[in-house]
Amino acid sequence: MGKKEDFIELITEGYTSKGESITLGGAILDGEALGDAHVKIPLKTLNRHGLIAGATGTGKTKTIQVLSEQLSPFGIPVLMMDIKGDFSGIAKEGEEKSFITDRHAKINLPYHTAKFPVELLTLSEQNGVRLRATVSEFGPVLFSRILDLNDTQSGVVSVIFKYCDDNKMPLLDLKDIKKVINYITEEGKEEITKSYGRISTSTTGIILRKIIELEQQGAELFFGEMSFDIDDLMRIDENGKGYINILRLTDIQDKPKLFSTFMLSMLAEIYQQMPEKGDSDQPELVIFIDEAHLIFNEASKALLEQIETIVKLIRSKGVGIYFVTQNPMDVPSGVLAQLGLKIQHALRAFTAKDRKSINQTADNYPTSDYYNTSEVLTSLGIGEALVTALNEKGIPTPLVATMMRAPMSRMDILTESEIQEINSKSKLVKKYSELIDRESAYEMLNKKITIIEEEAAQEEKEKQEEKTTKTITTQSKKDNSAMGKSVIKVLTSATFIRGVFGILSKILKK
């Protein structure tokens, strides 16, 4: 048996699945695409997370499109965090062109066009389903980690949440928590000190500045009601296809804190709400996080630890997370170690630093008797990738260079009119379009402060009245005393005068 036959047997055995699977494409050996060695990934292992990496323009977005297209018909919903804005075409049928026909002929896979059910989500003022969450839903621990607070500052945040819980004051948006901070450092300082201990104004000042920094990245649009219901990510259309939820993030590329805030809160919410699935035959939800380096570059140590913990635990809920970035080195080693499927598109070696990075990347993949991994990484064409996954037993599959199949849907973005069409038919857009601003901590504290001010004003008024009364009484006493003295003086003078005149009368009579 020759090298080619051995290789085909290795790939066929390594990527054969007894259960349902998705097909990425055909194997490549010595530059030749092999039509009888298909690369298949078992649905059963897709909750073991993954990495899709490669230089700009090498086909990462099309790979996500191919994966999403094959998950949807199995009733598996997808959440795609689309920062570049080039994924929305999945809602419309593609067009079979000559290069697609040639590609599929080489890998011996049929091709047909198709479109898929899509919801367009937004964190900002773009058109689509508005995503929001309340500050209370974040809780003190997650909110502190997002703000990158130290232990002392986090303790104060916990006191703030406890005070609001004890007084039944909902924390819905950022103006609520800012109002509470202002209150406990001014009007309510004595109240807080008495019940919860003394809080340093310098600490509350730092927390307030951190909140303002988050606010400046557009977080005030995200915090509020109504909160997004995680169940709305799990929808299936009338044909049994899972919805592909595209979160459009094109206008927050320069706001990594808001991006990481949303991502972590969403993962935490999914983990808390979804039931344990154990060893299921397919995932309940698959999440693709595009431009993942934006999260990791800006994340604090505490935030990275939180992400790593959630990635470890969330797969038991049937959720697969796939990080999409240019270089695997963008992903922390603790997270990278949790990723079962790795799809590595081409990397470019323009500098000595690039070549070193490529060698480090090669070390993250299984060794192969058929490839020099470092060389293959720089010679892959557009739409080609090195792939390694987990088989149904959780064992890593052989490393294989793969010619990826082409997307069935449109490989371009939607027009504005097409976006409007999708949104106009969306039940979720109508559901989440209304901004609810019910009574919360902000309004309740404003009322409380008004009452305090009115009581203080009344107390001051009463003090002034009492002071005035005392002044009048004192003056009256003084006046009465003076009058008494005058009367006595008059009477004394009269008596004296009468006495004098009496004596003079007696003298004259003599």
From TrEMBL:
Q: Which residues form the Helicase HerA-like C-terminal domain?
A: 35-483
Ranges annotated as biased composition (Basic and acidic residues)? 458-469
InterPro entries xrefs: HerA_C, P-loop_NTPase, T4SS_component
Annotated segments matching region Disordered:
458-478
Organism superkingdom? Bacteria
What the entry lists under Gene3D superfamilies is as follows:
P-loop containing nucleotide triphosphate hydrolases
**Pfam name, any one:** HerA_C
Write down what this protein is called: Helicase HerA-like C-terminal domain-containing protein
Organism name: Flavobacterium degerlachei
